[in-house]
Specification:
It is built from 9 helices and no strands. By secondary structure, the protein is mainly alpha-helical. Helix 4 (151-176) packs across helix 5, helix 4 packs antiparallel against helix 8 (242-267) and helix 6 packs antiparallel against helix 7.
């Protein structure tokens, strides 16, 4: 018991010393670690703030790029959708276009049955492009000069203005006169009607005589008249009422035939030749006057 009592304080002291040493070691380590941990903590706070700013900027830029790409994709999809809407109007076979071109010169008598008006734009658009090419050929043959713009722009403007403008006017009159025809049908009808203009301009430019316009007027009456009668027949078959028929038929016939006259006399070789002759008269007469003065001086 005595030994036990004597040995117990020693063990207690040793354990106390060990505990104090452990505490001191732990305190030293903890103080060192806390001191070292405070320094990186302050730097990491600044770094975390910069990282937050960068992350937010990255997110904002990513969102802006995503929104811009989404808008462009929507625009492209809407454009493709609009083109897809026009696709049925250009879905036609070449032999059908050839048949319709021939039928544009074969008028039918108006009757109670509605004559067919096509809902197709491929053939009329090709006819308009052909008319533009022939008009350019006529302008270059006549050495026509344009003060503002180019010959190509003038030809495009004249042909497409007539096509769209006349179709818009006829659609308005058809709406007023209660004619059963749509704007697409009017565009197709007027486009195929320009095939007669192409024939007249081509033959009038190549075979036109210089002394009169009889050959042109013959072509104008035959080909221009046949295409005009074809359009008038379709319009009359889809209109009720005598006054309404008279208004529509006279309007489309007058505009169609007068436009052909304009194309011929505005850009033809004969008009340019006449203007050159009239402008060159004073230049031709000046040498004659000089020669007469010289002969009179020699005789005297």
């Amino acid at each position: 018991m005595a030994d036990r009592g004597q040995s117990w304080p020693t063990q207690q002291d040793e354990s106390a010393i060990i505990d104090l040493g452990d505490v001191n070691d732990r305190d030293d380590g903890s103080d060192y670690e806390t001191d070292m941990s405070r320094g990186p903590t302050d730097g990491s706070g600044k770094g975390s703030l910069e990282e937050d700013v960068r992350k937010r900027l990255t997110d904002n830029v990513t969102q802006m790029v995503w929104n811009a790409g989404t808008q462009q994709a929507k625009r492209a999809w809407s454009l493709y959708g609009n083109i897809d809407i026009l696709r049925p109007y250009f879905n036609v076979e070449p032999h059908e276009v050839r048949t319709r071109l021939l039928q544009s010169f074969l008028p039918r008598m108006p009757s109670s049955e509605k004559q067919r008006a096509y809902r197709e734009l491929y053939g009329p658009l090709m006819v308009v492009f052909t008319l533009i090419a022939l008009l350019l050929f006529q302008m270059k043959a006549a050495e026509h000069k344009v003060e503002e713009g180019t010959l190509m722009g003038t030809a495009f403007g004249v042909c497409f203005t007539y096509w769209w403008g006349t179709a818009a006017l006829m659609w308005f009159l058809s709406y007023v006169c209660n004619a059963h025809i749509t704007s697409i049908q009017l565009l197709s009808l007027l486009g195929y009607g320009l095939a007669g203009h192409c024939v007249v301009i081509l033959l009038g430019t190549l075979i036109h005589t210089s002394h009169d316009h009889l050959f042109f007027y013959l072509l104008w009456a035959v080909f221009g008249g046949l295409s005009t009668l074809k359009m008038v027949g379709v319009i009359l078959s889809r209109t009720h009422g005598k006054s309404q028929r008279l208004i529509l038929s006279c309007t489309i016939a007058a505009i169609h035939l007068l436009f052909l006259l304009y194309l011929h006399f505005a850009y033809h070789q004969i008009v340019e030749d006449l203007s050159r002759v009239l402008d060159s008269d004073p230049v031709v007469k000046q040498p004659e006057l000089v020669n007469n003065v010289k002969t009179v001086s020699k005789d005297s």
